[in-house]
């Protein structure tokens, strides 16, 4: 669909609407090799070749970022007092209007996706999509087979009733719980463990659907996703055995 040239350039993270308007009027932008000086002229993002000072602008309809969320930052787009995951991204990505697809608590680390694709975020988060998220929880007491059974049957916490979840523990270490849930309710993992008498000391998200946190990313680092990785979100990997 045809779009205004200035809006197109801004949406691709090239600069603010004001900046790109200046470049266009200054003759620094070409469309199919021809300088275009009207910021309101129309381009077809899928087929026109737009260049800024001879550098082609590669068109991406949406952006998908995998972040290794560190502790102490909010999964929000802005906050008056605390820093947010958006603050960890460079200006050109922030300008694209990314938002975190789902929340992790301030003290939770691990895999967080940021995108400007509302439809994908909705599909990924809707409980009926059954996209399981895998968490690794360090606990204050060892897990038992009864805990795994309770998770399998569905945990209640106060008024809340959570859908059945898969729980196991790390080989040789029953204080490290591995839990998979397909809902994303407030403090859900912490509350589920609390319901079986365990306190979560550290919580990390390792996987969403079939997409794993890239081990090369250290806390606070991010990278864009490849197309194939985006489809992995919707490919489940239910390979772990239940206790
Ligand atoms: N469950 C929690 O309790 N916290 C998170 O950050 C994510 C899931």
Explain this structure.
- 21% of the residues lie in helices and 28% in strands.
- The chain has helices spanning 5-11, 17-25, 91-94, 118-125, 145-153, 188-195, 227-232, and strands at 3-4, 29-31, 34-35, 42-43, 50-52, 55-56, 64-69, 99-100, 109-115, 133-139, 156-157, 160-161, 166-170, 173-181, 200-208, 211-212, 222-224.
- Strands 7, 8, 9, 10, 13, 14, 15, 16 and 17 form a nine-stranded mixed sheet that branches.
- Helix 1 crosses helix 2.
- The longest helix has 9 residues, at 17-25.
- The protein starts with a strand and ends in an 11-residue tail after the last helix.
- The mean pLDDT is 94.
- Residues 104-105, 108, 187-190, 203 line the site of uracil (URA).
- Keywords: Isomerase, RNA-binding.
Which features does this protein show?
21% helix; 9-stranded mixed beta sheet; binds uracil; 17 strands; 4-stranded antiparallel beta sheet; 7 helices; alpha+beta; 243 residues; elongated
| Structural classification | alpha+beta
Give me the number of helical elements: 7
Q: What would the principal axes of the Cα set say about the shape?
A: elongated
State the low-pLDDT regions, or none.
none
Count of DSSP strands = 17
> What is the helical fraction, as a range of percent?
10-25%
Which ligands occur here? uracil
Order of helices and strands: EHHEEEEEEHEEHEHEEEEHEEEH
Average pLDDT rating: 94
Report the β-strand fraction as a percent range.
25-35%
Rg estimate, integer Å: 22 Å
User: What does the main sheet amount to?
Assistant: 9 strands, mixed
N-to-C CA distance: 52 Å
